[in-house]
Design a protein that fits this description.
single chain; 290 residues; alpha/beta; 2 domains; nine-stranded mixed beta sheet; 10 helices; 41% helix
Protein backbone atom coordinates (compact mmCIF):
# COMPACT_ATOMS: atom_id res chain seq x y z
CA UNK A 1 0.00 0.00 0.00
CA UNK A 2 1.26 3.45 -0.97
CA UNK A 3 0.22 6.93 0.14
CA UNK A 4 0.03 9.51 -2.66
CA UNK A 5 0.66 13.11 -1.56
CA UNK A 6 0.89 16.26 -3.69
CA UNK A 7 2.32 19.26 -1.83
CA UNK A 8 2.96 22.93 -2.51
CA UNK A 9 4.79 25.33 -0.19
CA UNK A 10 4.25 23.14 2.86
CA UNK A 11 7.51 21.35 3.55
CA UNK A 12 7.20 21.74 7.31
CA UNK A 13 3.60 20.49 7.29
CA UNK A 14 4.47 17.51 5.08
CA UNK A 15 7.19 16.62 7.58
CA UNK A 16 4.54 16.36 10.33
CA UNK A 17 2.29 14.27 8.08
CA UNK A 18 5.04 11.83 7.10
CA UNK A 19 6.17 11.34 10.69
CA UNK A 20 2.67 10.24 11.66
CA UNK A 21 3.29 7.04 9.63
CA UNK A 22 6.44 5.89 11.44
CA UNK A 23 4.76 3.00 13.27
CA UNK A 24 2.73 1.72 10.32
CA UNK A 25 3.01 -1.94 9.32
CA UNK A 26 0.55 -1.66 6.43
CA UNK A 27 2.00 1.29 4.50
CA UNK A 28 4.88 0.26 2.24
CA UNK A 29 5.75 3.65 0.93
CA UNK A 30 4.86 7.05 -0.47
CA UNK A 31 4.50 8.83 -3.80
CA UNK A 32 5.28 12.49 -3.22
CA UNK A 33 5.04 15.28 -5.79
CA UNK A 34 6.21 18.45 -4.09
CA UNK A 35 6.57 22.01 -5.42
CA UNK A 36 8.76 24.36 -3.39
CA UNK A 37 8.92 28.14 -3.52
CA UNK A 38 12.68 28.24 -2.84
CA UNK A 39 15.77 26.06 -2.85
CA UNK A 40 15.79 26.00 0.96
CA UNK A 41 12.24 24.68 1.04
CA UNK A 42 13.13 22.06 -1.60
CA UNK A 43 15.95 20.94 0.69
CA UNK A 44 13.48 20.66 3.57
CA UNK A 45 11.20 18.48 1.44
CA UNK A 46 14.17 16.27 0.60
CA UNK A 47 15.18 15.95 4.26
CA UNK A 48 11.69 14.75 5.18
CA UNK A 49 11.77 12.23 2.35
CA UNK A 50 15.17 10.98 3.47
CA UNK A 51 13.84 10.59 7.01
CA UNK A 52 11.09 8.14 6.00
CA UNK A 53 13.40 6.36 3.53
CA UNK A 54 15.89 5.78 6.34
CA UNK A 55 13.06 4.17 8.33
CA UNK A 56 12.62 1.60 5.55
CA UNK A 57 9.74 3.10 3.57
CA UNK A 58 9.91 3.13 -0.21
CA UNK A 59 9.57 6.66 -1.58
CA UNK A 60 8.90 7.66 -5.18
CA UNK A 61 9.25 11.41 -5.34
CA UNK A 62 9.54 14.48 -7.53
CA UNK A 63 10.59 17.73 -5.84
CA UNK A 64 10.88 20.90 -7.91
CA UNK A 65 10.97 24.65 -7.43
CA UNK A 66 7.88 26.21 -8.98
CA UNK A 67 4.18 25.45 -9.08
CA UNK A 68 2.61 22.79 -11.28
CA UNK A 69 -0.89 23.26 -9.90
CA UNK A 70 -3.27 20.88 -8.15
CA UNK A 71 -4.50 18.71 -11.02
CA UNK A 72 -1.08 18.35 -12.69
CA UNK A 73 0.56 17.37 -9.40
CA UNK A 74 -2.17 14.79 -8.70
CA UNK A 75 -1.84 13.36 -12.20
CA UNK A 76 1.87 12.93 -11.61
CA UNK A 77 1.07 10.93 -8.46
CA UNK A 78 -1.23 8.69 -10.52
CA UNK A 79 1.34 8.29 -13.28
CA UNK A 80 4.09 7.30 -10.84
CA UNK A 81 1.69 4.74 -9.37
CA UNK A 82 0.98 3.29 -12.82
CA UNK A 83 4.67 3.11 -13.66
CA UNK A 84 5.97 1.69 -10.38
CA UNK A 85 3.25 -0.25 -8.57
CA UNK A 86 1.52 -3.54 -9.26
CA UNK A 87 -2.10 -3.60 -10.38
CA UNK A 88 -3.24 -5.12 -7.09
CA UNK A 89 -1.43 -2.50 -5.01
CA UNK A 90 -3.58 0.04 -3.18
CA UNK A 91 -3.08 3.79 -3.54
CA UNK A 92 -4.40 6.07 -0.81
CA UNK A 93 -5.01 9.65 -1.90
CA UNK A 94 -3.76 11.93 0.88
CA UNK A 95 -3.17 15.64 1.42
CA UNK A 96 -0.01 17.15 2.90
CA UNK A 97 -1.91 18.35 6.00
CA UNK A 98 -3.43 14.97 6.89
CA UNK A 99 -2.31 13.17 10.04
CA UNK A 100 -2.33 9.37 9.97
CA UNK A 101 -4.34 7.89 12.89
CA UNK A 102 -2.79 4.43 12.63
CA UNK A 103 -3.19 1.20 10.67
CA UNK A 104 -6.66 0.53 12.10
CA UNK A 105 -7.93 3.45 9.98
CA UNK A 106 -7.00 1.69 6.71
CA UNK A 107 -8.32 -1.81 7.40
CA UNK A 108 -11.98 -1.01 6.54
CA UNK A 109 -10.92 0.37 3.14
CA UNK A 110 -8.88 -2.73 2.37
CA UNK A 111 -11.90 -4.88 3.23
CA UNK A 112 -14.08 -3.11 0.66
CA UNK A 113 -11.41 -3.17 -2.04
CA UNK A 114 -11.52 -6.98 -2.00
CA UNK A 115 -14.84 -6.65 -3.84
CA UNK A 116 -14.23 -6.37 -7.61
CA UNK A 117 -17.22 -4.04 -8.05
CA UNK A 118 -15.71 -1.35 -5.80
CA UNK A 119 -13.67 1.30 -7.58
CA UNK A 120 -13.15 3.79 -4.77
CA UNK A 121 -13.51 3.74 -1.01
CA UNK A 122 -14.05 7.24 0.34
CA UNK A 123 -13.06 8.12 3.87
CA UNK A 124 -13.85 10.61 6.60
CA UNK A 125 -11.74 13.68 7.26
CA UNK A 126 -11.86 14.76 10.90
CA UNK A 127 -11.00 18.44 11.05
CA UNK A 128 -8.72 19.25 13.98
CA UNK A 129 -9.60 22.91 13.49
CA UNK A 130 -12.19 24.80 11.49
CA UNK A 131 -10.81 26.62 8.50
CA UNK A 132 -11.47 30.36 8.78
CA UNK A 133 -11.85 30.95 5.02
CA UNK A 134 -14.53 28.86 3.28
CA UNK A 135 -14.63 26.03 5.85
CA UNK A 136 -15.67 22.50 4.91
CA UNK A 137 -19.43 22.03 4.86
CA UNK A 138 -20.90 18.58 5.42
CA UNK A 139 -24.61 17.77 5.36
CA UNK A 140 -24.63 14.98 7.92
CA UNK A 141 -28.33 14.17 7.85
CA UNK A 142 -29.10 10.56 6.96
CA UNK A 143 -29.42 10.26 3.15
CA UNK A 144 -30.33 13.95 2.73
CA UNK A 145 -26.95 14.81 1.18
CA UNK A 146 -27.26 11.98 -1.35
CA UNK A 147 -30.84 12.95 -2.20
CA UNK A 148 -30.06 16.64 -2.69
CA UNK A 149 -27.03 15.79 -4.83
CA UNK A 150 -29.23 13.80 -7.21
CA UNK A 151 -31.97 16.44 -7.16
CA UNK A 152 -29.93 19.62 -7.60
CA UNK A 153 -26.72 18.56 -9.31
CA UNK A 154 -24.72 20.30 -6.59
CA UNK A 155 -22.59 17.86 -4.60
CA UNK A 156 -23.32 17.54 -0.88
CA UNK A 157 -21.23 15.26 1.32
CA UNK A 158 -22.32 13.34 4.43
CA UNK A 159 -19.32 12.12 6.45
CA UNK A 160 -21.19 10.56 9.37
CA UNK A 161 -23.35 7.80 7.93
CA UNK A 162 -22.05 4.62 6.40
CA UNK A 163 -20.85 2.44 5.02
CA UNK A 164 -23.09 3.35 2.09
CA UNK A 165 -22.87 3.54 -1.70
CA UNK A 166 -22.54 7.11 -2.98
CA UNK A 167 -22.06 8.99 -6.23
CA UNK A 168 -19.32 11.20 -4.80
CA UNK A 169 -17.07 11.14 -1.77
CA UNK A 170 -14.31 13.08 -0.03
CA UNK A 171 -10.70 13.80 -1.04
CA UNK A 172 -9.57 10.86 1.08
CA UNK A 173 -9.76 7.91 -1.34
CA UNK A 174 -8.47 4.35 -1.53
CA UNK A 175 -8.32 2.56 -4.87
CA UNK A 176 -6.57 -0.33 -6.59
CA UNK A 177 -3.86 0.68 -9.05
CA UNK A 178 -5.57 -1.40 -11.77
CA UNK A 179 -8.32 1.27 -11.84
CA UNK A 180 -5.71 3.82 -12.87
CA UNK A 181 -4.68 1.76 -15.92
CA UNK A 182 -8.11 2.44 -17.49
CA UNK A 183 -7.33 6.00 -18.67
CA UNK A 184 -8.35 7.60 -15.39
CA UNK A 185 -6.84 11.04 -14.77
CA UNK A 186 -7.59 14.34 -13.12
CA UNK A 187 -8.92 16.75 -15.74
CA UNK A 188 -6.41 19.59 -15.93
CA UNK A 189 -9.09 22.03 -17.08
CA UNK A 190 -10.06 22.47 -13.43
CA UNK A 191 -8.11 25.55 -12.51
CA UNK A 192 -7.23 27.52 -9.40
CA UNK A 193 -8.10 25.65 -6.21
CA UNK A 194 -8.98 22.52 -8.20
CA UNK A 195 -12.59 22.53 -7.01
CA UNK A 196 -14.48 19.52 -8.46
CA UNK A 197 -11.28 17.72 -9.57
CA UNK A 198 -12.02 14.73 -7.30
CA UNK A 199 -15.72 14.74 -8.25
CA UNK A 200 -14.72 14.50 -11.90
CA UNK A 201 -12.30 11.64 -11.22
CA UNK A 202 -15.01 9.80 -9.30
CA UNK A 203 -17.47 10.33 -12.15
CA UNK A 204 -14.95 8.79 -14.56
CA UNK A 205 -14.63 5.74 -12.34
CA UNK A 206 -18.41 5.31 -12.07
CA UNK A 207 -18.73 5.62 -15.86
CA UNK A 208 -16.48 2.55 -16.08
CA UNK A 209 -19.07 0.61 -14.10
CA UNK A 210 -17.39 0.66 -10.68
CA UNK A 211 -19.10 1.61 -7.42
CA UNK A 212 -18.01 4.14 -4.82
CA UNK A 213 -18.56 3.41 -1.17
CA UNK A 214 -18.17 5.80 1.73
CA UNK A 215 -16.72 4.12 4.80
CA UNK A 216 -16.51 6.37 7.91
CA UNK A 217 -14.22 3.92 9.74
CA UNK A 218 -11.61 4.73 7.05
CA UNK A 219 -10.50 8.16 8.25
CA UNK A 220 -7.75 10.69 8.76
CA UNK A 221 -7.16 13.82 10.83
CA UNK A 222 -7.10 17.08 8.88
CA UNK A 223 -5.01 20.00 10.11
CA UNK A 224 -6.89 22.41 7.75
CA UNK A 225 -3.83 24.62 7.30
CA UNK A 226 -4.64 28.03 5.77
CA UNK A 227 -1.31 28.82 4.16
CA UNK A 228 0.51 27.17 1.28
CA UNK A 229 -1.06 24.24 -0.50
CA UNK A 230 -2.51 24.10 -3.99
CA UNK A 231 -6.02 24.75 -2.72
CA UNK A 232 -5.31 27.72 -0.47
CA UNK A 233 -6.69 31.08 -1.60
CA UNK A 234 -8.60 34.07 -0.29
CA UNK A 235 -12.39 33.94 -0.14
CA UNK A 236 -13.02 35.88 -3.35
CA UNK A 237 -10.84 33.58 -5.42
CA UNK A 238 -12.19 30.43 -3.75
CA UNK A 239 -15.77 31.37 -4.68
CA UNK A 240 -14.63 32.43 -8.15
CA UNK A 241 -13.05 29.03 -8.80
CA UNK A 242 -15.98 27.17 -7.27
CA UNK A 243 -18.28 28.86 -9.79
CA UNK A 244 -15.92 28.42 -12.76
CA UNK A 245 -15.05 24.79 -12.02
CA UNK A 246 -18.56 23.68 -11.11
CA UNK A 247 -19.80 25.24 -14.36
CA UNK A 248 -17.17 23.30 -16.29
CA UNK A 249 -18.11 20.12 -14.43
CA UNK A 250 -21.81 20.53 -15.26
CA UNK A 251 -21.13 21.29 -18.92
CA UNK A 252 -18.66 18.43 -19.31
CA UNK A 253 -21.09 15.88 -17.89
CA UNK A 254 -24.09 17.43 -19.66
CA UNK A 255 -26.21 18.37 -16.70
CA UNK A 256 -29.81 19.31 -17.54
CA UNK A 257 -30.77 22.98 -17.42
CA UNK A 258 -32.78 22.75 -14.18
CA UNK A 259 -29.81 21.28 -12.28
CA UNK A 260 -27.60 24.10 -13.51
CA UNK A 261 -30.12 26.65 -12.25
CA UNK A 262 -30.40 24.95 -8.85
CA UNK A 263 -26.60 24.70 -8.55
CA UNK A 264 -26.16 28.39 -9.31
CA UNK A 265 -28.85 29.24 -6.76
CA UNK A 266 -26.97 27.25 -4.11
CA UNK A 267 -23.62 28.88 -4.93
CA UNK A 268 -25.19 32.35 -5.00
CA UNK A 269 -26.87 31.79 -1.62
CA UNK A 270 -23.55 30.59 -0.19
CA UNK A 271 -21.84 33.73 -1.50
CA UNK A 272 -24.51 36.01 0.00
CA UNK A 273 -24.09 34.33 3.39
CA UNK A 274 -20.31 34.83 3.24
CA UNK A 275 -20.40 38.53 2.44
CA UNK A 276 -18.86 41.07 0.01
CA UNK A 277 -15.67 39.16 -0.88
CA UNK A 278 -17.62 36.03 -1.81
CA UNK A 279 -20.11 38.09 -3.84
CA UNK A 280 -17.20 39.67 -5.73
CA UNK A 281 -16.03 36.15 -6.60
CA UNK A 282 -19.43 35.31 -8.11
CA UNK A 283 -19.57 38.56 -10.09
CA UNK A 284 -16.03 38.03 -11.35
CA UNK A 285 -16.90 34.49 -12.47
CA UNK A 286 -20.06 35.64 -14.24
CA UNK A 287 -18.06 38.07 -16.34
CA UNK A 288 -16.22 35.02 -17.72
CA UNK A 289 -18.92 32.34 -17.83
CA UNK A 290 -21.50 33.01 -20.53
Amino acid sequence: MFIGIPSYNRAKILKISLRSFVNSKLVRGFIIVADAISSSEAEEYNRSIKYVKDLGFEVIYDVKIGRRGSTKARNMVLEYARQNLKKDDVLISYEDDYIYPGDHSLIPALHWLKKPSIGVVGGRRINIRKRRIDPDFYLNIFYLADYLTKLTGYIFIDVDHGPRYVDYTTHLMAMKVKILTQEINYDENYGGIGYREESDLQMQIRKLGYKIIFEPRFYTYHLAIESGGDRYSDLENRIFWKWINHTYFMNKWRYPFHKKVLSYMILTTYALINGPSAIKGVLKANRIVK
